[in-house]
Amino acid sequence: MGLLDYLRNKQSGNAAVSDKSDLSGRSDFTPPARIAPQPTDVAALPADVRATAKERARYIGMVDEAAASRRMPKEQAAVFVAVNYAECFPNLVRGGKHGASTLTYASYKNWKRKLQKSGTLADNYVRGPRPVKGDERFWNIMWGMFLNQNHLPLAQAYRLACEAMRKTDPTVPVPSIAAVRLAASRLDPAAVILAREGESAFKNHCMDFIRRDWTDVAPGECVIGDSRTFDTRVRVWDDEKQAWIGVRPTITGLLDARSWFFASYWITAEPVNTGTLIDTLALYLYNTGGVPPKFAYFDNGKDYCARGYSTPFEAGGKEHSIFGELGIKLITALPFNARAKTIERAFRDMMQQFDKAFPDYLGSKPTERTMGAAYFDKHPEELPSLEQFSQIFATWLETWHHTPKRGELHAGKTPAEMWGARPVSAPLSPEELRFALLQPVALRKVGCGPAVSYENELYYCDDLRFGQEVLVKTDRLDERHVYVFTPEGALIGEARTRDRIKALALDDEAARIAIADQLARQRRQLKNARTYLSELSGGGYLASPLELFLGAGGELEHRGSVGSVKGASHHYRRIGVAGVDFTAPAAPAPPALPGPEKSVTCDTPEAPPETVAEFDTFMRNRRPEFVDEE
Questions:
Q1: What is the arithmetic mean of pLDDT over 555-565?
Q2: Is 357 strand, coil or helix?
Q3: What percentage of the chain's residues is helix, strand, coil (to nearest 5)?
């Protein structure tokens, strides 16, 4: 009797026992329809996952039925079904490692346990991203090495990440290469393209139009920075032409991302540079009482992303920047994607409501240029000054701040109202703000002075050491001084410039006093260096090594001096050691002590050595362990 016959008899109430010959070789066998319960979203599973789950359920059912009908242990029943009905399990017979069969008793037990525990035999298939297992530091290193445009192979990135993790913390277990490959296969393909192929490939293949929702950002949490040149002009005096000229002013501002409130802005007739941006940030901190934002949303301009300002300046294995000192995180916008920055909307209102109010309106396009602009080309003296222009702008901006804005972001509130209701945060102290706004600009080695050079100017500081490498930070409030730090960021001191002194200060009392001060400073530096050497050596640096050797422990004696315009020193002092006098008669040599043959006794020679050969013999006599090898 076959298994099918047994099942039919069982369903009809008859049970019978069949032998193996009745079951083997049956190609028309139909397995029992005992399928494990599937999850409610079975349709969401891939077809191969569903098919494998069905075969596992069929295998469990057949093993149970074979064990019951043939009265054999489950282990033998698992082998019996695997041998005689392998054609019923096309996925399981090659679903193991290297294509091996998974129709085993161990698989039977695991699948049955899984069925009882989770109610499904489908693999742990999850749609979309999922958290990875393992230490977060490893994954940060791993993805940092793999997700970059160096196109490092996954296996090589994994090997380097493992080595880096062992150096960081050798006790942390790292995931296997199989787990890393699986995690890499689940990464967002668009993000992988951006990281490994660049922004151009990302735009061409993946990027969609971006609509940003700022409703979950609190007022005062994020600022958006940008600059704009007005479509009108101000009058500026030109020293070369000795006449007024028309110049288009530029505004650089920090707009609060949530409230659209211009927390600080700077209007200038000069080109905007990093210094202007630092001044704008300092004004922001002044207006907020010393509370910096958490985030800054900038474009990719070189001044906005200048090293030492928003982008770290690396020195001594550490990163230094004004943003880092203030705890501000930089977020850069996509290039040429102005709609991503809400400050562009404010600039549009500025152009339509403010620029067009002036008779000198130039138009945002050449075709919009007015006849009034042509008139003021010839009469720039009638243009407002920069100060007048700034006052007019402040009046307009005050009105704009108190105008209710429509839309979900403001919901009828004004920018000033939302800005005034921002959360209260702890401000930085004046001392913290003072040092935080210093911009790291260069690494320098200390030279003569001691001084460091920056932009063809020497800055002097007594706390500097010759040859020392230091980090230079500039101060926007005073360009005649810089601050010097160790490359690790520890403050050394303040360094200042010096005015040149007249070479012939015959009638200039101030110049003569400055020269006297500099000469006194030089003498003080020399004295300090000599004091330092005396403290290190007890004054022995002035004596010769031979005398220090012969008269170890003796007092130092001043025996004379000599002057010279050449040499290492213009004034030489003869310092000797008490008890060492080469002019005194030599003492008779004591009798030689018995020792090994060809050995030399250790004692003072009859006369002081005068040549290299005599000094060598003298040293060998002082050490009896030296034996003549000839």
A1: 68
A2: helix
A3: 40, 15, 45
Give exposure, 23-54, as e/b (b: 16+ Cβ within 10 Å).
beeeeeeebbeebbebeeeeeebeeebbebbb
Q: Give the β-pairing of 243-247 and 234-238.
A: antiparallel
Q: Are 312 and 321 in contact (CB under 8 A)?
A: yes
3-class state of residue 6 by DSSP: helix
For the residues 118-146, what does the mean pLDDT come to?
Answer: 78
DSSP 46-113: -HHHHHHHHHHHHHHHHHHHHHHHHT--HHHHHHHHHHH-GGG-TTGGG-SGGG----SHHHHHHHHH
Helix or strand or coil: residue 21? helix
For 364-405, the pLDDT digits (tens) are 777 788 888 899 999 999 999 999 999 999 999 999 999 998
* 300: Cβ contacts below 8 Å, ≥ 6 apart: 332, 333, 335
pTM of structure = 0.52
CA distances from 292 to 206, 263, 274, 295, 429 (A): 35, 11, 18, 9, 12
How many residues in total does the chain contain? 630
Position 462 confidence tier, pLDDT thresholds 50, 70, 90:
confident
What pLDDT is stored for residue 588 in this prediction? 59
Q: 373-377, 476-480, 534-538: which has the minimum mean pLDDT?
A: 534-538
Q: Is residue 280 within 8 Å of residue 265, measured between CB atoms?
A: yes
Query: Residue 347 and residue 338: Cα distance in Å, rounded?
Result: 11
- Would strands 329-332 and 295-298 be described as parallel, antiparallel, or unpaired? parallel
8 A C-beta contact, residue 472 and residue 454: yes
Helix (H, G, I), strand (E, B) or coil at 200: helix
Q: What is the DSSP string of 567-607?
A: SS-SEEEEEEETT--TTSPPPPPPPPPP-STTB---S--SS
At 44 the pLDDT is 65
Per DSSP, the three-state class of 478 is: coil
Residues 6+ apart with CB under 8 A from 525: none
User: Any idea what the Cα angle at residue 174 is, between residues 169 and 179, rounded to 5°?
Assistant: 160
Query: What b/e sequence results for 288-311 when a residue is b if at least 16 CB atoms lie within 10 Å of its CB, and e otherwise?
Result: bebbbbeebbbbebebbebbbbbb
Which domains, ranges and CATH numbers included, belong to the chain? Answer: 3-118 (no CATH), 142-205 (no CATH), 222-420 (3.30.420.10), 438-496 (2.30.30), 509-577 (no CATH), 585-630 (no CATH)
610-620 tens-digit pLDDT: 565 666 666 66
What is the reported pLDDT for 108?
92
Identify which of 572, 541, 569, 535 has the alpha carbon closest to the alpha carbon of residue 556. 541
Average pLDDT over residues 579-595: 61
DSSP 8-state code for residue 233: -
